[in-house]
Structure formats: C-alpha cells, structure tokens
Amino acid sequence: NTITAIATPVLGWDSVYNYTAATGGSGTESDDELRIRFRDTKYERASNILEALYSALISVEGVTEVVIYENDTDTTDSDGRPPHCFMPIVVGGDTATLAKTIWENKPLGILSYQIQAPATSYPTGYTTIYDSQGFPHFIGLNRPVPTALYISMSLLKTTGVYPADGDAQVKQALLDYLEENFGIGDDIIYSRLYTPINSIVGHQVNALTIGIAPSPSGTSNIVIPFNGIYTLDPANIIITTV
Fold it and tell me: Which pLDDT tens digit goes with each residue over 96-152?
C-alpha cells in the first residue's frame, strides 16, 4: 500500500501498486567490510588444514573470533594439550554448527581437544557427530574463559572543552579500543589504555588503575590465560572528574 508512483516510466505502464510489504536488500559492501571478509575467508580453499579450518569456523554465523592451537609432538605440551591434537577456541556461533564444521574439516585420526573440568573425562562434554556409516566421533570445542576487567581513573577536565557527555565518550572509546585490539589470549597492556582515553578532548589523566576486582589499584598489565579473554562491563569503568 505504499509503492504507488512509477519512478522510471515504462511504456504500457499506467499505475503501480504493492499488495504486500517490500523487503529491502542489503547495502553495497564497504571497502572495510570487503577487507575483513577477504581476511577471514582467504584460506577457504587452502590446502593447509589448519588454515582451512580457521576460515570455515570464522565464516559460521555469529562467530567473531577463532584461535586454533596445535600440538604435533609426542608429549603433552606446557598448556596441557595431549599429543597430536588441535584445540579450537571460538567466540560466538552455535555449538552444534561449529562442531559439525570442525568434523567436516578435521584431519583423520586427530583429536579436536576440549579442556575438561577436573571431575569429567573424555568424551564427557564433547559434541557427538555421526559419520555416514553411523559411527560416533567426539568433537571438542572450547569457549574462552572470561577475565572481568575493572578500570578506575581520575580526570582533570577543562571547563568548556570537555564534552558534556565526556564520561560516556571515554567509556565508549575504551570499549571500542579493547574490542578492536585485544582478543583470545591477549594480555591487557596498561599503558595502551591511555590511547582511547586521550582520544577524548578536554582533560588530562591524573590517575589510572586497572585490576580484576572492584576498586582496582594496579598499574601493571593484566595477564590473560592462553584460553582466556577479557570482559569489560561499562559499569566497571569508574571515572572521577575534577
């Protein structure tokens, strides 16, 4: 009931009318979106299984990050991975879909390893995939262990320059910067936090402390385990302005 005008005249057309709602298409892919898609899928047809598996997993709907560790030695490595296995860690995506994707791309006879809780043992917790002959295969998939981050700062603001919503802008700048630069297994580098904070005009940083508990007092880097990832709730960013 909304499309009633003929924008481009066509010979023989007198009127136009839509009986059902129109469905809009997607916008043209931007240059940045194209570069990201190329980065994530450039190994899609790779002969190297690890690269092909990465590309397949990152292409699953909802997935934002993938890291795959490999132990191709005959002994358990320093992170506890057993011999001859690979360990996928994925942020986002449906677990069943990811397990199927791993099964379709994994090498024969190599375990997709999943870290187990102390009270469990293989294959408890693994996803079961059945092959065309009906045989079960146990597919391990890991989610990064979260480390909550707390940030506290004191800002000396310049009246008339510091934005009215400056605190909100500082928080958003921190959230965006961390999301873009720190992922699975990345330590939080204390000194780098000044970069997003100082991107907001009209202040100077009098004090900045970070930690993994409320009321942080540290100025050292936050160590993130190889299978971990930081989390930051905006409510855990405390800003005092003077």
Answer: 999 999 999 998 889 999 998 777 888 888 999 999 899 999 999 999 999 999 999
Whole-number pLDDT of residue 88: 97
Q: Mean pLDDT across the stretch 3-17?
A: 89
Three-state secondary structure readout of 120-138:
CCCCCCCEEEECCCCCEEE
Rounded CA gap, 142 and 63, in Å? Answer: 13
Which whole number is the average pLDDT over 69-78?
Answer: 95
- The rounded mean pLDDT for the chain is 91
Tokens of 103: 């099964």
